[in-house]
Amino acid sequence: ESSPVSLIIRPNRTQHFTADSLSVSCEDQNNSTGWTVRRYTDNETSFDCSSVPGSTCNISSLSTSHTGVYWCQSESGGCSISVNITVHNGAVILDSPVHPVTEGHNLTLRCLYRNPNISEASVDFYKDDSFLQNQTTGEIIIISVSKSDEGFYHCKHPERGESQKSWVSVRGLSYGKAPTSVLKLLSSVATASLYVLVTILLAVKCYRARAEPDEDNRPYRVIEAETSF
Ligand SMILES: *[C@@H]1O[C@H](CO)[C@@H](O)[C@H](O)[C@H]1NC(C)=O
Ligand SMILES: *[C@@H]1O[C@H](CO)[C@@H](O)[C@H](O)[C@H]1NC(C)=O
Ligand SMILES: *[C@@H]1O[C@H](CO)[C@@H](O)[C@H](O)[C@H]1NC(C)=O
Ligand SMILES: *[C@@H]1O[C@H](CO)[C@@H](O)[C@H](O)[C@H]1NC(C)=O
Ligand SMILES: *[C@@H]1O[C@H](CO)[C@@H](O)[C@H](O)[C@H]1NC(C)=O
Ligand SMILES: *[C@@H]1O[C@H](CO)[C@@H](O)[C@H](O)[C@H]1NC(C)=O
Ligand SMILES: *[C@@H]1O[C@H](CO)[C@@H](O)[C@H](O)[C@H]1NC(C)=O
Ligand SMILES: *[C@@H]1O[C@H](CO)[C@@H](O)[C@H](O)[C@H]1NC(C)=O
Q: What residue ranges line ligand 4, CB within 6 angstroms?
């Protein structure tokens, strides 16, 4: 969140079709060109942007070898958050957000087809391989997401087949407020320690009182003595 640079993916989704175009750029508040798009794949040699220093990387025709982790890096070594981009040569992809969704926001997932002639059909959406919903619109909206909505999603069209899975992550509202959480944790630990300490002290006192009873610590005798009057 406090990163000075934003990694922008156009079209803004995780999955892409082969032969489509993709633009990856690094944009900071100063419109500075000091950022370079970087990528990590299994096959580093195939990155056609690595030789062109600049804050935008345009790929005119994607291939499956463009699948990988992308991020922005400055000359001084600063980095943006990284994102996963996957390129498929199939007929169906899932349109899911590249960046984490903030808790409480809505999550829209869409099934997209290489052949734009979409036949009317009920599209099934899955989360972690379990059936979630079916929609004839090819789109579902998960209202006000929470941490439990995090997972691998995919969609399935009855004739065109299914998409690959993509990870959707949910960012908590407390993101970036770690110091407060640490303080809270420390104060809970301090309170708990004090409680344990007091309990131990009382237990020791009580044990001693029982183990070595003296004249002052015999309530029954005192009561007996009183009732005998
Ligand atoms: C933007 O430019 C100003 C002036 O050149 C500089 O002081 C500031 O650090 C820059 N900010 C970022 C995020 O690069
Ligand atoms: C950065 O560039 C965009 C478009 O070119 C412009 O609208 C914006 O005002 C610029 N921002 C700064 C801080 O220069
Ligand atoms: C990497 O890409 C090159 C060129 O596309 C190819 O010849 C080579 O086999 C690839 N290596 C791996 C490990 O995939
Ligand atoms: C990349 O593509 C976008 C539009 O898709 C265009 O506006 C931009 O100028 C291109 N940048 C480069 C460096 O080719
Ligand atoms: C990218 O994908 C890899 C492998 O599926 C996963 O381990 C990693 O957490 C993902 N990163 C992001 C930012 O989604
Ligand atoms: C989420 O969707 C619901 C229902 O469509 C709408 O009322 C609400 O304003 C949306 N919330 C956000 C944060 O967009
Ligand atoms: C889409 O449908 C139209 C009319 O049915 C047809 O002419 C066209 O070839 C189809 N396009 C593809 C890519 O199949
Ligand atoms: C959608 O899913 C429900 C529940 O699984 C099922 O009863 C219904 O037949 C499905 N609708 C379509 C059009 O497939």
A: 23, 56, 58
Q: Can you tell me the distance from the alpha carbon of 168 to that of 188, in angstroms, rounded to the nearest whole number?
A: 33
The predicted pLDDT at position 1 comes to: 43
How far is the C-alpha of 109 from the C-alpha of 228, rounded, in Å?
A: 86
- For residue 154, which of 209, 213, 106, 90 has the smallest C-alpha distance? 90
Mean pLDDT for 188-196 is 69
Closest CA to 87 of 103, 58, 63: 63
For residue 118, the ligand closest to its alpha carbon is: 7
Which residues on adjacent β-strands are paired with residue 127? 130, 153
Segment holding 188, helix H or strand E:
helix 178-211
Q: Whose CA is nearest to atom 10 of ligand 5?
A: 84
Closest CA to ligand 1's atom 8: 30
- Of 48, 54, 52, the C-alpha closest to 27 is 54
CA–CA separation, 216 and 91 (whole Å): 90
Bridge-based pairing state of the strands 170-171 and 101-102: parallel
Tell me the ligand closest to 78's alpha carbon.
1
Bridge partners (DSSP) listed for residue 87:
16
**From CA 10, how far away is CA 4, in angstroms rounded?**
20
Mean pLDDT for 187-205 is 68
**How do residues 117-144 score in pLDDT, each as one tens digit?**
877 789 999 999 999 999 999 999 999 9
Q: Are strands 123-127 and 166-168 parallel, antiparallel or unpaired?
A: unpaired
Q: Is it the case that residue 64 has pLDDT exceeding 80?
A: yes
